[in-house]
């Protein structure tokens, strides 16, 4: 929910979209599981991660080598829009470069959040969590954008 409240600077109130307030002519209400047409296609390019060495000790992820980072990018929203996709793993690099693009067809963009997670691949145990952020789609603008250092440093969006 923290991602949704970024749309108002974290002040604590986000007005629901108008379609959630309305009742149809036959008393129908919005059904998040209904099959709806695609309204918008979001394109996200994950370029690189930077600054990890400043947030974590050099042996935090791997004792004997630099980390093997990958990024999961997805949408949190209505069931038809919710999905997670994954970049390739960049081995032994504190500043990974992925340069991968993902497309997300969205049926209800008004309720969608772009979710970005960074993990460190671990062959012998569960992958290590590096960081995450959620951004409301309504706040995204086209172009290259940076997100907080504990997450993939630079992304590009086309709305």
UniProtKB/TrEMBL annotation:
User: Which source organism?
Assistant: Coptis chinensis
Topology with regard to the membrane? Answer: Peripheral membrane protein
Q: Which GO terms describe its cellular component?
A: plasma membrane
What is the recorded name of this protein?
phosphoinositide phospholipase C
Species lineage = Eukaryota, Viridiplantae, Streptophyta, Embryophyta, Tracheophyta
Cite the PI-PLC Y-box domain residue spans from the record: 2-20
Q: CDD domains this protein is in?
A: C2_PLC_like (cd00275)
Q: What is its EC number?
A: 3.1.4.11
A single Gene Ontology molecular function, please?
phosphatidylinositol-4,5-bisphosphate phospholipase C activity
Keywords, comma-separated and alphabetical: Cell membrane, Hydrolase, Lipid degradation, Lipid metabolism, Membrane, Transducer
| Cellular localisation | Cell membrane
Origin, by domain of life? Eukaryota
Name any Gene Ontology BP term. Answer: release of sequestered calcium ion into cytosol
Which Pfam families does the record cross-reference, listed alphabetically?
Answer: C2
User: What does the record give as the reaction this protein catalyses?
Assistant: a 1,2-diacyl-sn-glycero-3-phospho-(1D-myo-inositol-4,5-bisphosphate) + H2O = 1D-myo-inositol 1,4,5-trisphosphate + a 1,2-diacyl-sn-glycerol + H(+)
Residues covered by the C2 domain: 22-151
């Amino acid at each position: 929910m923290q991602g949704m409240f970024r749309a108002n600077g974290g002040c604590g109130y986000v007005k629901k979209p108008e379609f959630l307030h309305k009742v149809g002519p036959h008393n129908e209400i919005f059904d998040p599981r209904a099959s709806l047409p695609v309204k918008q296609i979001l394109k996200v390019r994950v370029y690189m991660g930077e600054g990890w060495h400043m947030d974590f000790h050099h042996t935090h992820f791997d004792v004997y080598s630099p980390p093997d980072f990958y990024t999961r990018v997805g949408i949190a929203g209505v069931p038809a829009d919710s999905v997670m996709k994954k970049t390739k793993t960049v081995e032994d690099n504190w500043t990974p470069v992925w340069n991968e693009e993902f497309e997300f067809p969205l049926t209800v963009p008004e309720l969608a959040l772009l979710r970005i997670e960074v993990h460190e691949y671990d062959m012998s145990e569960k992958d290590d969590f590096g960081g995450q952020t959620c951004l409301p789609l309504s706040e995204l603008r086209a172009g290259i954008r940076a997100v907080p250092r504990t997450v993939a440093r630079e992304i590009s969006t086309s709305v």
